[in-house]
From TrEMBL:
It holds the Pfam family Ring_hydroxyl_B. PANTHER family: BLR3401 PROTEIN. The keyword Oxidoreductase applies. It comes from Ramlibacter tataouinensis. GO terms for molecular function: oxidoreductase activity. One of its GO terms (biological process) is 3-phenylpropionate catabolic process. The lineage of its organism: Bacteria, Pseudomonadati, Pseudomonadota, Betaproteobacteria, Burkholderiales. Belongs to the bacterial ring-hydroxylating dioxygenase beta subunit family. InterPro entries: NTF2-like_dom_sf (IPR032710), Rng_hydr_dOase-bsu (IPR000391). It comes from the Bacteria. This is Aromatic-ring-hydroxylating dioxygenase.
Length: 161
């Protein structure tokens, strides 16, 4: 059994994360991560580590800052007008909770509009959450397993899913 207050707090963090991505609030999104936090999107669900293996994303906060700078540049083609995302996060389940961290799994669907084209991404999130010195939840690890990671795309992912 999971404490209802903890369940609500975790859900609100995941919903906030989706809102920040859809609103293109890149710095606030990055700030949700712990100082040693990692955003990881493996190529296949069978992958168990990113070091020494190809990944779609494997970014610590420094790499996230670099990506933010690239997509925030005024001439960033990937951010041209008519580019939006819409995230839906659901099925949030706390698998374990201890003082060392909280293990969470959830499902997501993201729709991306780029000019007149729409792409759909779906899959599961796995979050390892920790508390910072102020007691706020921070993301130590976010693993994103795309349901359609093997599908061909006409261009690469420019921003976090």
């Amino acid at each position: 059994m999971v404490d209802g207050a903890l369940q609500h707090e975790v859900e609100q963090l995941l919903f906030l994360q989706a809102e920040l991505l859809d609103g293109k609030h890149w710095q606030a999104f990055i700030d949700l991560f712990a100082d040693d936090g990692v955003y990881w999107m493996p190529v296949t669900p069978e992958q168990h580590e990113w070091e020494g293996s190809p990944s779609i994303f494997a970014e610590d906060k420094l790499m996230m800052e670099i990506r933010k700078g690239r997509v925030s540049h005024p001439n960033a083609w990937s951010q041209a007008p008519m580019w939006e995302t819409n995230h839906v996060v659901s099925h949030v389940a706390i698998e374990s909770a201890s003082p060392a961290g909280i293990q969470v799994r959830s499902r997501f669907h993201m729709m991306e509009l780029r000019r007149d084209d729409i792409r759909h991404f779906g899959g599961s999130y796995r979050h390892t959450l920790v508390r910072d010195t102020a007691g706020l939840l921070r993301i130590k690890l976010q693993r994103v397993d795309l349901f359609n990671s093997q599908a061909p795309f006409e261009y690469v992912l420019q921003i976090w899913v």
